Amino acid sequence: MFITRECDYAVRVIRALSGEGRVSVSDICERESITAPFAYKILKKLHKAGIVRGYRGVHGGYSLNKELEELTLMDVYSAIDPEMFIIECMNPEFHCIRDGQDGVPCRVHCELFEVQKELYEMLRRKPLSQLVEKES
After folding, report:
1. Global pTM?
2. Range of 97's domain?
3. pLDDT tens digits, residue range 57-76?
């Protein structure tokens, strides 16, 4: 599936961190109903992508490393799943026996490639600051 639960939860983690300084993993989990092991897995990927910053120690936790205005859903989703394709044949490493058979490109592949391209553009169109609202 294209947008996984892990991708969805990553946006929840960003929401929990927005407008805050350091936030503990337990606070993130409580605010967004995410289990700690899943939160740590997501935070590790977001940290590797430079989206969040981690702090060690008793007063440790995580904070955003980028402003919400700089981030889009595509940034978050690709940090979690860098090979995000709507279908397996979109992966350039996948060899489809139907595409290019007898020198003719697969029309379904060509159409899905355009769909994927438009979807990626849509995921980039708005900054997270427009999508992530803090509840009062």
Report:
1. 0.84
2. 5-130
3. 888 899 999 999 999 999 99
